[in-house]
Design goal:
single chain, 147 residues, alpha+beta, Aminopeptidase, five-stranded mixed beta sheet
């Protein structure tokens, strides 16, 4: 098994969309029409701060990490935010999730980010098992209001 982490390219659209659908299905999430296409267009737009890294196994995309960085009021610099992380069910347990996070850590360090953070559902024991190996949760609870 040859694992590679790389930036998503326009040629990855179909593979990414299949993974994205798996991500949405895992959360029993139905997005409004056009949102997935809009998200993809932003991910490959070099002017957009949000980007996707793909985990490929023997050249086939099997997972992704969507991230962005932003200024912070808490540190002298930027923070990195891992917005979405997904690994195809058939590729789980092979280190892809860990490799995607380690890739973002390396990117953040190379770009001078001060911190990397992410969220997960409190009952997502599988993800939390991985995340707890990197750092402890910080005890925050998310509030999100629709506007």
């Amino acid at each position: 098994m040859k694992l590679t982490i790389r930036e998503a390219t326009p040629a990855d659209r179909d593979a990414f969309m299949a993974l994205w659908q798996g991500f949405c299905d895992g959360y029993d999430l139905t997005l409004a029409p056009g949102v997935s296409d809009f998200t993809w267009e932003r991910l490959i737009d070099p002017a957009c701060a949000m980007t996707a890294r793909l985990a490929t196994v023997d050249g086939k995309p099997m997972g992704f990490a969507i991230h962005q960085h932003h200024p912070s009021t808490w540190v002298m610099g930027d923070d990195g935010y891992l917005e979405d992380l997904f690994v195809a069910p058939e590729a789980r347990g092979k280190g892809l999730g860990r490799a995607l996070i380690e890739d973002l850590i390396a990117i953040g360090r190379a770009h001078g980010w001060q911190r990397l953070y992410w969220l997960t559902e409190i009952d997502n024991a599988t993800a939390r098992h991985l995340y707890d190996q990197f750092c402890a949760n910080d005890g925050h609870i998310r509030y999100r209001m629709r506007l």
